[in-house]
Amino acid sequence: MVASGLTPEQVEQFNRDGFLLLPGELSPERVKALYNETSKLLSDFSLADHPLTKFSTDETAHVGDDYFLTSSDKVRFFFEQDAFDDKGELTRPKEKAINKIGHALHNLNDEFRADTVNDRNRAIAHSLGFKDALVLQSMIICKQPEIGGKVPSHQDSVFLYTDPPSAVGYWYALEDCTAENGALSFVPGSHKWAKISKRMIRADGTKAGTTFIKLDGVEAPREPEDEEFVMPACPAGTLVLIHGSLLHKSEPNRSQKSRYAYTFHMIEGEYKYDNLNWLQVPPTEEGGANFTHLFA
């Protein structure tokens, strides 16, 4: 049986709002399997040779070391900013200190690959008008209890830039997401007026770190007011589709409950993805970038 894509009404809603929630996209069995696999990954990774790289979406402190920049074809672990004391030592077990795991789960982990490269996701990408959908990063976002950091208002295409912008995020809730544990919130329709005005790049085109540059002739969007954001109910198993230009954020998790989610992004392969982007996929033997082709 051929998997169906989005209905015309769902496509219309995505184009209008810039995001779309699909409750029950993952069965309870798949949610449990991905949650258990996440727990296993967190338990099994070693601190022995880990550089204790922290992750932040704050532009003044964004991660940019070699461990981060060479993670496109690996499964690596990035810590929460608040997981360390003043001496740089972990204040909790490593399983409760990780911000995210990335960025090649869609290639290197069978459980997560099964919920990335499949007929349903291909059909959704077709529904959204993609000609050559490329998967270029995948992550488990942990949003740990008590220390899960705030993610300020941002647009995904700033970090995964194509010309023209084309990124779309697939975001699967592996636990119930609520106001208490840092659920996503969105500014509906902001993808229509908030143009991509900057991009995160590798500093000097090297492995020296990352920086942000402004795009010529594009005015930075205004910062939305708090009341412009909406936070829809997002139970475990929900898939959220997120337009790359949509302004969205999440608050810190100060509750006693985590907020695990699995997310990957796709871009249009027919558009330019250059070597300034922080995420660079190793080349194939033929010389082209070794992206995962969703339609292959």
TrEMBL record:
Superkingdom assignment: Eukaryota
Record carries keyword Metal-binding: yes
Pfam families: PhyH (PF05721)
Cofactors required: Fe cation
UniProt keywords, alphabetically: Iron, Metal-binding
PANTHER family, alphabetized: PHYTANOYL-COA DIOXYGENASE DOMAIN CONTAINING 1 (PTHR20883), PHYTANOYL-COA DIOXYGENASE DOMAIN-CONTAINING PROTEIN 1 (PTHR20883:SF15)
UniProt family annotation: Belongs to the PhyH family.
Name used for this protein in its record: Phytanoyl-CoA dioxygenase
